[in-house]
Design brief:
With 204 residues, this protein is α+β, with helices and mostly antiparallel strands.
């Protein structure tokens, strides 16, 4: 049985990070990244690279939650004591026990610090253990090697490539998208322990 309510304010946390539902209050927390690091969203279809776009991004994310289509989290780094990025569940299909995990970004200083692996651990644990998902999907443009390598490092399997399925909003060039996934059997048999072993040393 699916155990998920879009109206519930879920808090996912461990000793390293806290994920809380994105709200309008996070505009001020994220503005420094918009003003100083707009290149963070180079590969994103939904950009926060201007104050106007950041405000639009938050508004759309909140509406998607109200429409019961997506659920976006703001990411708080407990060690740095600040908000460092965002991530979300999207393409949520409760009737077929599957969702996509994406639209993830972090400030430059917080990339490669263990924040992402801790977030993925919490999100995957919740998806498989609480929401009882059968499939969690990820997508990345084929030129975004940083994201692809990060996904492979947490145990994702490459399902294939969607050729010429998207257009870069900045250049108009068509892009290929790599599709990756983790299944509930893989989570229980290998990925859960593997990812736990990877994040445990980071949290000492």
């Amino acid at each position: 049985m699916i155990n998920f309510d879009f109206n519930e304010d879920y808090i996912l946390e461990n000793d390293f990070v806290r994920l809380e539902p994105l709200s309008a209050k996070h505009y001020d927390e994220f503005l420094e990244y918009t003003l100083n690091e707009p290149e963070i969203w180079e590969y994103s279809m939904v950009k926060c690279d201007t104050p106007e776009n950041l405000n639009k991004y938050i508004g759309i994310a909140i509406q998607k939650r109200l429409d019961q289509k997506e659920y976006t989290f703001a990411v708080y780094d407990k060690r740095k004591q600040k908000f460092v990025g965002a991530t979300r569940y999207c393409d949520i299909f409760l009737d077929s026990n599957r969702l996509q995990l994406g639209y993830t970004w972090y400030g430059k200083e917080h990339q490669g610090t263990g924040v992402n692996k801790n977030c993925k651990w919490l999100l995957l644990e919740f998806a498989f253990e609480k929401m009882h998902m059968v499939r969690v999907e990820f997508r990345a443009y084929t030129e975004n090697l940083r994201s692809i390598n990060a996904l492979l490092s947490i145990g994702c399997t490459v399902d294939g490539i969607l050729r010429s399925n998207a257009v870069c909003p900045k250049t108009g060039v068509r892009r290929d998208t790599m599709v990756l996934s983790i299944l509930n059997t893989e989570w229980h048999e290998t990925v859960c322990k593997m990812l736990h072993d990877k994040i445990y040393p980071l949290n000492k």
